[in-house]
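Work package 3, deliverable 3.1, input record:
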Amino acid sequence: MAYRSHILLCSGTGCVSCGAFTLKETLKTELQKRNLQDEIQVVTTGCQGFCAEGPIMIVQPDGIFYCQVKPSDVPTIVEEHFIKGRPVKKLLYTGAAKATPIPALKDIPFFAKQQLVVLRNRGLVDPDKIEDYIAVDGYSALSKALTEMKPEAIIAEIKRSGLRGRGGGGFPAGIKWETCRKAYLQRNVEPVVICNADEGDPGAYMDRSIIESDPHAVLEGMAIAAYAIGAKEGFIYIRHEYPLARQRLLNAIEQAKEYGLLGENILNTNFSFNIEIVQGAGAFVCGESTALMASLEGEVGEPRAKYIHTVEYGYKNRPSNLNNVETYANVPLIILRGSDWFASMGTGDPRENPWNGSSGTKVFSLVGKVNNTGLIEVPMGISLREIIFDIGGGIPKGKKFKAVQTGGPSGGCLPESKLDMPVDFDSLTEAGSMMGSGGMIVMDEETCMVDVARYFISFLTEESCGKCTPCREGLRTMLDILNRICEGKGKEEDIAFLEEMGEVMQDCCLCALGTSAPNPVLSTIEYFKNEYLEHIKNHKCPGGVCKELITYVIDKNKCDGCHACTKVCSSNAIKGEAKKLHSIDTTKCIKCGACIEVCTKDAIYKE
Amino acid sequence: MADNTIKIKINGFEVEAFDRQPLIEVAEKIGVKIPTLCHNPIIEPYGVCRICTVEVRHRNRVRMVTACNYPVTNGIEVFTDSERVIRNRKLIIEWLLGRCGNVKVLNDLAEQYGITEPRFGRGTDDCILCGLCVRMCQDVVKANVLGFFERGPKRYVSTSFDQTSDLCITCGACASVCPTGCIKIDKLEEGTYKEMPMGPVTPIHIDFMQAVPKKAVIDKESCINFKTGGCKVCVDVCEAEAIDHSMEAKEKEVDVGTIILSTGFKLQNGEELKEYGYGKYPNILSSLDFEVLNNANGPTGGKIFTQDGRVPKSIGIVHCVGSRDKKYHEYCSRVCCMYALKFAHLIKEKIHDCEVYNFYIDMRCFGKGYEEFYNRLLKEGVNFVRGKVAEITDAALDKSEQGKLILRAEDTLIGTVRRIPVDMVVLCLAIEAQEDAKEVSHFFSCSVGRDGFFIEKHPKLAPVSTAADGIFIAGVAQGPKDIPDTVAQAGAAASAVLSLIQQKEVEAEVVTASIDEEICSGCQICVGLCPYTAITYNKDKNISELNEALCKGCGTCVAACPSGAAQQKNFRDNQIFAEIKGILAV
Amino acid sequence: MPKLTVEDLKNLREGLRDKMNIRSGEAKAKVIVHMSTCGIAAGARDILKAFMDEIENRGITDILVTTSSCAGLCSKEPMITVLYQNQPPVKYVELTPQKVKKIFEEHLLNGNIVKEFALASGSETTA
């Protein structure tokens, strides 16, 4: 049925921080009360540009512009404007709308296609001031949970929202909380809530950003989880390499305690919850849940056999709920805005079955060969193409896209043919990669996929705990083979051998790190086999990266003998007279690339 | 009991198990062998070698799991030798060979699975990082000496800071569980040699197969539980639940009427005779050492080896070590010649071409068939050198002596000093009385001779009795003798005891001393003097009291007593004076 | 600081809301310097110092300078957001202390956006 009016509510961060969503709820309720819900539609929009006057409300097709609207104004607006047809004068915008001479943020693709949930407060609140967080509805969710909801209801709500683990596992958080609480009630052993802020994937910094932007969101999420599960103790395991994030968390905890929002008898209720920050010590493997808990206990951070679930027997054999930073950061909003709202974003409908689809948004660190590198938050289901080309602004210097690596060292590389794939948990896993914690590395034609596989395997070899045979020996031997291939000494049977090793590792490794370790190799073999064959059969590196297989050549048509390259060549490999064609002595060239960087004529290339 | 019983299938066979029982236990029950490397039933499963990975199907889900620690649940189907499982196993073996190419247990597995050309070559390490030693040391023994260091391919097992650990109690548990044999137990000090264990190898042991009673005992000093509170593996495996570490020695008081002292002997400590190098050079054994070595229940199963594992080509047996010697014991130990001949015979039997040399002073073959046995040996080609060995040295004078022990003795029959190089020496050390023989004898109111052995009442007519009535002696405690003689003495002592017990009345010694309570001042001079410990001091009354049953009427106390309180019956002063008068009257 | 009850929290929130958008009349402009690890690595501390210096040197009392976190577009840091009276927030990117001086004079003192340094105006969309 056609609506006779649309109310456009601005949901820019400025307006939201002034209560735009509370306003929305109040509007909807009032419209329902007056039986106008079928005639007047409430729509949220991006930033209208009048952030100083928010919350902004535009009524179309009347073209009426209300500003600084409060929930207490709503009955008046509905009564006067929608029922009696008389716009409310005192709320109308009176100042002259200054046309801003620069583009609007909502028109810039990098920002336009993002939808902030977890990062809603970024750039807006001072993370070191709890007052800023409180001003933007901070701790209201905790307040609501403690006073209006029972633990079982909270768990049901989280389940219904379909929130799946944002650390890479994609396990429905609600089910995890439910199992943890059940174990607690059955065994009468106090559970513990743990936040995994180890973030070891190279190139990934989503969790760091979330903590540095909005540490209280994480704390509030943990507190709600603790209340739902029955825990009184919480840990944040943060990697040693994040000193600023750790400091902001420490400040946040202290300030929250001062206000009685953490600690004993929170908000004057019976609920007490204390959080301790524990630092990692430079081990990627401590991001794995059993290794993390071992490290928390003071043992060596090594994983253990997986046939006992940590959610039942975890930290010190207590029921332990381990979730990622981003997962917890989603929780306050789900409690405030409801599971229907969260489920409405993303793919699938999780309300009956939390495994169904991927709801909500995901934070990605978009890095690599892309114009707009940065931290983005997008609704699940958005395509890779939109992320890389719209938000990311495409490949710099006009180079061609080759692959995108998702999920860190446990993930895989996806080629051009997969660009229109929706980004969600199940699609990525099906394609041979995985969501992981949200690292997204874009690669162009000058990337060698074999070298990429080698890079990840060498990282994993260093970080492997070495406990189980297939990971320890498998990674080492895979690295040997990949090194050989990159040096031009590859053999025909190497590809099949790598695949065999990968399959055995997937079957036999002790922890998820090991079983997912072959992914970079297996996915590059699947989608970029020709690159491997080029290296092995023709001793060539199509990406121009593997030093043994490339030579630097000066294009005789472009070189004008300006000597720029000879000056930077550290191995004296370039010879040539002034203003005459220069040449490179390939026996001396160490392929450092310095000459290519300084050549203004683009005359040096790799072949 | 039937509450948590479930049914699973292994390779198509249905088998009963307990809910969450480790899969490998269930498989073992029906004889399905799954290879393991890092598994040991007394240690918590670690699940790191991954070679026991098998396929488990449940409903539609297939999982690859490690059998050593996977808890079975109802209705699962396990496949231990499917194509996928075998492929995985083979690659894991190849990977391990790539690290440790020459380890026997890996090569055995390689042979079993048909791996002839491991694709990663053969590495030269010998530790497969199974962690058995570490877990044994940390979780079972609880000495916490061994650990893993570094991570990834650089991982290795060591002690803290790679230095010799003060915490190590040298229990050897790590070496005993190591599947590759790469852990060795070494002695630390310079100048000592690697010893082949001659005695019991474990703190809990049965002394020897012929022990009576044949029960295990725990040596408190070497038992790990008494050092760290850990281990107690013996308790876990004892089906009869007979082991109790908290047992204490109990003292029992038994009232008896007669006592037989047969406390045996000790073999002289060979280290006393510095010229023979016992304990300094390797391969010098005492006679008891050799008995243990030679015994079929001994450390080598009866084979004769030198301490570094070679078969000796020549052995020297030295008689009269410490016996018939003014410096040590003048007496002859009686049994050595015969057992030395026995050794010579056994050696020749076990190692046909071994040159055996017996160095003797006199050959004492006094018993039935003994001399005949000696003659037999002469025919077996045993070399007899009549001369006491002066010195055993390892200082070689020429090539033929290098690496050997040289016995220097005067061969009195041919009148020259000989140097005879041998691979092994057996010393017939003297039989000595027990260390505490003197104290024991005092306690039981008898005495020991100069040689330390108990003194019999009469050397010819009462060899098993002592001066104290009711106390008898038997066996080597009375003097060196061999088994037939000991048995004879034991029988004599037993029958003497029996005849005593049979009598309803015993004739007591009449001429005992007596102590007059009124006169005794409690000076206690007599207490220490009495050779039969018949006098004790009564603190409350402040007098010395005489036990007439023990008193033999020797009169020592009477002579010593300053106050005249001790008097001998029938030998009182007035009685003696009366006798003198009587004689003089004739 | 007294511990909050549920009522206290609600009231506190209402009171602080206006301060977020400088509507309470204390300041005529607010500069938010984006400082997370990425921003700091790119030089945000110098930018912050430059603004603080300008305020001190000129003796200004009605312009607020605060810090916040990374705004997302890491490749263009150091970044700031300027809130001026009734105007939508403006994001300036790839800043240097020299650019700071110009922005301060033209935008913060006189209300004119410096087009050449600006990226865009407005706020991000919250879901």
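Chain A touches chain C through 85 residues (CB under 8 Å).
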